[in-house]
Design brief:
With 133 residues, the protein is α+β, with helices and mostly antiparallel strands. It has seven helices and four strands; from the N terminus they run βαβααββαααα.
């Protein structure tokens, strides 16, 4: 595991995003943890202080290394594309640009995610070592 993706376990769109990354991550570089779980409380304690109502995608790139980087919202989503590589990498290049416009679009979708994606898809059977509590 190189990267840790925190997601809202109650969000239908977030579950779809996790399903997407699971399918596209052929090298098993990503691990996953719910935003309201034990791992998030431990790893995101400083972030929760800055954002008490944290309910967005959080990516810890290079998790546990001295080069660990925390990416939120659109920047995190786009960086995931970059890290997945292949056909997704060109979209991921946008993560290196200033994120004001992308974050605005991300927040608009996030605000309406329960209306737009009302049906929650369960996560497929998966390797338990890739899912932290």
């Amino acid at each position: 595991m190189k990267h840790l993706l925190f997601y809202d376990g109650d969000c239908p769109l977030c579950n779809r995003a996790v399903r997407f990354v699971l399918g596209a991550d052929t090298q098993n570089h990503f691990a996953f943890a719910p935003l309201h779980g034990e791992t998030a409380q431990k790893e995101l304690a400083d972030l929760h202080t800055q954002h008490p109502d944290l309910d967005t995608l959080v990516l810890l790139q290079n998790y546990g290394s001295e080069n660990e980087e925390t990416l939120l919202e659109a920047k995190g989503a786009l960086r995931i594309c970059w890290l997945l590589g292949g056909w997704y990498a060109p979209l991921g290049l946008l993560s290196f640009l200033p994120g004001l416009l992308f974050d605005w679009g991300y927040r608009l979708i996030a605000k309406n995610r329960f209306k737009l994606f009302s049906k929650k898809l369960p996560l497929p059977p998966h390797d338990p070592s890739r899912f932290l509590s």
